[in-house]
């Protein structure tokens, strides 16, 4: 059920990211809502479902931006594997781990997208992009992870109950 739920949720989130977040930019950074939903969902979901969320989220994000199709999915899929590995190593992912995952995952996702854009021949200035895009995006992501995590967790619990009733 979680894989099917990714379509409406991520279409809505990618649409909000493409239409609303450009109006709340700080320098050139904006919250990466799709990444935050994928990260939040993957903490309590099986690996295969999390990978579906990462692929679907990356594709929808790229469809509504100037990025080549699939570019955003690369960093999200790798982040999902890291979350899956970490969730098997620690007893519970609480405040510290969610904040650390958001920080590390946001940095990794933004650097991966920057690197792939550079490899595709786009003109890039690392210091300017790091200071004016990547750092503000990380700050936004750190500020928004908790409300997004709460919504994601509510959706998971809501549809986990319906799965038990259907079985």
For this entry, give a set of tags.
167 residues; globular; 78% helix; 6 helices
Kindly summarize this structure in a few lines.
Helix content is 78%, strand content 0%. It is mainly alpha-helical and 167 residues long. Helix 1 (2-19) runs parallel beside helix 3, helix 2 (33-43) crosses helix 6 (126-166) and helix 4 packs antiparallel against helix 5 (95-119).
Question: How do the strands and helices of this protein lay out in sequence?
Answer:
Layout: H1 2-19, H2 33-43, H3 47-63, H4 71-89, H5 95-119, H6 126-166
Output the structural class. mainly alpha
| Overall average residue pLDDT | 88
Shape: globular
Biggest β-sheet strands, sense, barrel: none
Identify the quaternary structure here.
single chain
- Compressed to H and E, one letter per element, the order equals HHHHHH
Instruction: Assign a percent range to the helix content.
Output: over 70%
Count the DSSP helices. 6
Per DSSP E runs of 2 or more residues, the count of β-strands stands at: 0
User: How much strand content do the residues show?
Assistant: under 5%
Total count of domains: 1
Structure overview:
By secondary structure, the chain is an all-alpha fold. It has one domain. The chain is 78% helix and 0% strand. It contains six helices and no strands. Helix 2 (33-43) packs across helix 5 and helix 3 packs antiparallel against helix 4. The radius of gyration is 16 Å and the shape is globular. The model is unreliable at 161-167 (pLDDT under 50).
